[in-house]
Each structure stands twice: as C-alpha cells, then as structure tokens.
C-alpha cells in the first residue's frame, strides 16, 4: 500500500456549480514498493465527516477531479484522498474543506451624496453571502447617453472599498468626457 497520502487542494475551477480537487503524484520512494495505479476520494455529502466513497480514479497520471452533482451552493464539503496500488489503498490525506461558492444576493438601493468635490457612491451590505465572502463589487455608473460604464475610479476589489461599502468619484470625472453628466444631474450607480 502507498505509505504517503497525496496533498489535496481546492482547484481554481471551483464555483457555484462544481468542486474541483487537485493533488500531487506519489513518488516511487513512497508508493509502498508498487506503482500507484490511481486514487480513491471520499467526501462527506454535507455531514461533516468525509467517509462516503465519491470516486475512484483509475490512472496515476490523473491529478484532478471535478464533482458536479450532489452539491448545494453555499455549503461546505470535506474531502479525503488516498493513493491506490495493486496491494490496496494507502494512508488518507488530511481532510480538505471546500465551500461551494454562491453569487451574492442583489444589493439594496445605492445612494449618492456630495463629499467635498466628490460624489460618494454607497451601498448597503447584502443580507447573505451564502457562506462565501464578497471578494469584489462591480460599480457601474450611468452615463449621459443612458448606458452604464464600469467605474475605473471605484476599485470594487480594493479591501477598503469592500469593507466601507462606498467609493468617491471626483465630480470633474463625472462631468468630463467619460460620463458627460451635466452639473446637477443625479448620479445613478
């Protein structure tokens, strides 16, 4: 049996519809004297203990698995992996907890106020993040022609903007060529 467990990690393709798992190959020094033939993955189905067989990978070269069924957005699932050879299943990895992402709920109404020579665009916190923290806000400002433009002045991924839930845009930017708003026009974001 393999004497080393693969190191399990959350794959970058994990989203609200799937969980991607990745792991490292087991080298010949830790394969128990017999070549690794695949991997066995257990999960918890939301129960908290990863002891339910999820899949068996029948290739030592396969180092990813994507689960697309049995998942609920916003839920946390635990996974364990073991290397397999002709003698049997090796030691188990540490448990990996993965939160299935979920899109944040619609925000409440945005407010704009004057803040010196700036327009402050502020928004309320969403009531629920579905167990996933907000990583960025997308801030769109309505231009004079009625179309919306994503604001380059408000960095919605900036940690301070995320925490404060507001950003300031210079009035000269709003009345300039980018937005072409006239003085006194309400800012709609």
Question: Explain this structure to me?
Answer:
A hairpin with a 5-residue loop joins strand 11 (140-142) and strand 12. The model has no long low-confidence stretch (mean pLDDT 86). The protein has helices at 159-164, 171-175; strands at 8-10, 19-23, 38-43, 52-57, 64-67, 76-85, 88-92, 96-99, 111-115, 118-122, 140-142, 148-150, 166-170. 6% of the residues lie in helices and 34% in strands. It has two domains: 8-99, Immunoglobulins (Immunoglobulin-like, Sandwich), CATH 2.60.40; 111-175. Strands 3, 4, 6, 7 and 8 form a five-stranded antiparallel β-sheet that branches. A three-stranded antiparallel β-sheet has the order 1-2-5, with no helix packed on it. A three-stranded antiparallel β-sheet has the order 9-10-13. The longest helix is centred in the last third of the chain and has 6 residues, at 159-164. The chain starts with 7 loop residues before the first strand and ends in a 14-residue tail after the last helix. The chain is elongated. It has 189 residues and is mostly beta strands.
């Amino acid at each position: 049996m393999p004497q080393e467990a693969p190191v399990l990690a959350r794959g970058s393709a994990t989203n609200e519809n799937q969980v991607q798992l990745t792991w490292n190959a087991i080298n010949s020094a830790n394969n128990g004297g017999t070549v690794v033939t695949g991997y066995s993955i257990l999960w918890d189905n939301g129960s908290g203990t990863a002891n339910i067989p999820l899949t068996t990978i029948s290739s030592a070269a396969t180092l990813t698995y994507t689960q697309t069924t049995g998942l609920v957005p916003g839920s946390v699932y635990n996974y364990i992996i073991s290397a397999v050879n002709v003698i049997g299943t090796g030691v188990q990895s540490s448990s990996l907890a993965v939160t299935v992402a979920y899109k944040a709920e619609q925000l409440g109404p945005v407010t704009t106020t004057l803040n010196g020579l700036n327009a402050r665009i502020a928004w309320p916190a969403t009531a629920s993040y579905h167990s996933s923290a907000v990583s960025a806000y997308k801030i769109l400002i309505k231009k004079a022609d009625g179309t919306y433009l994503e604001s380059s002045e408000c960095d919605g991924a900036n940690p301070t903007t995320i925490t404060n839930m507001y950003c300031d845009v210079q009035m000269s930017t709003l009345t300039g060529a980018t937005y072409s708003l006239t003085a006194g026009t309400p800012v709609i974001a």
